[in-house]
Design a protein that fits this description.
about 260 residues; alpha/beta; 2 domains; globular; binds adenosine-5'-triphosphate; ATP-binding
């Protein structure tokens, strides 16, 4: 696996040309192998930004470049050879087995319509099943799995795509705390560049190298978690009273939140 360099310049988006701009121009640079967490209140534009990064939305202004190549200069297939996505929506292929679903990740690498699966495909699929510890579930149908197991299958499918950039939309949604920690641990261990939206700010601080804070379609801050997730920035962006404490003996920072209007 090779990690991508992601470079975003003056990127903005509106549903229609001349319509309301839902994402104001923003720029950032993510070095290969880094994990970026995108955080912000409901409706801040997290999913919109991710959709621009995986070439679902075409920018109104600006560019998304992966290893120096503008995504919109690539075919959809060539983009899918570089970028894989794990979305919140569960697929409807409930009757397919886990191995079938993971094999779908090879689609962008197949030659022509109905191109056959080679020995290398089989090797990559087994590797992805191994990494997500899915061998015992490989023959089960997706519909028979728990939400956490399904999430692992979707990550395995994304890895079978052999991307350089992996994008995840709220990968911890619907997972219990153990599975949340496991999925974030896994994300950290992958030798890829990763962009993920997350709601839990403490998990974000623990799992990400960089954080991008969005509010009403605008980038409020970008950088190290300790810098971006300050009490003031979090309080203002989420309209709460945020307090940061240092936990002992780990020395990790931990945010707690209160409704500000409870004190007035
Ligand atoms: N295609 C669209 N047409 C019109 N409005 C849209 C479109 N896509 C998103 N929006 C609006 O843009 C805003 C940002 O939506 P987005 O889904 O990116 O937010 P989010 O930060 O991911 O929210 P959440 O945390 O609730 O998932 C919302 O107000 C949403 O209704």
């Amino acid at each position: 696996m090779t990690a991508a360099h992601l470079s975003v310049t003056d990127l903005s988006w509106a549903p229609r040309r001349g319509g309301d701009t839902l994402l104001q121009p923003l720029s950032f640079d993510l070095a290969p192998g880094r994990v970026l967490g995108i955080v912000g209140p409901n409706g801040a534009g997290k999913t919109t930004l991710l959709r621009l990064l995986y070439r679902f939305h075409r920018p109104v202004t600006g560019t998304v470049a992966v290893d120096g190549v503008d995504l919109w200069s690539l075919s959809a297939k060539a983009a899918a050879q570089r970028i894989a996505v794990v979305l919140q929506e569960q697929p409807s292929d409930f009757a397919l087995t886990v191995r079938d679903i993971v094999a779908l990740g090879r689609t962008p690498h197949r030659q022509g319509f109905g191109g056959g699966a080679g020995a290398r495909d089989a090797e990559v699929i087994e590797g992805a099943l191994d990494r997500l510890d899915l061998h015992t579930l490989a023959g089960r149908t997706l519909g028979s799995l728990s939400g956490g197991e399904r999430q692992r299958v979707l990550v395995a499918r994304a890895l079978a795509q052999e991307p350089r950039l992996l994008i995840l939309d709220e990968p911890t949604n619907h997972l219990d705390i153990r599975h949340q920690l496991e999925i974030l641990d896994l994300i950290r261990s992958l030798p890829l560049t990763i962009v993920t939206s997350l709601h839990d700010l403490n998990l974000t601080a623990g799992a990400c190298d960089e954080v991008l804070l969005l509010r009403r379609g605008q980038m409020v801050a970008y950088g190290a978690p300790s810098h971006v997730l300050s009490e003031d920035a979090v309080s203002e962006t989420f309209r709460v009273l945020a307090r940061r404490e240092r936990l002992m003996p780990s020395h990790a920072d931990h945010l707690t939140f209160h409704l500000s209007d409870q004190r007035t």
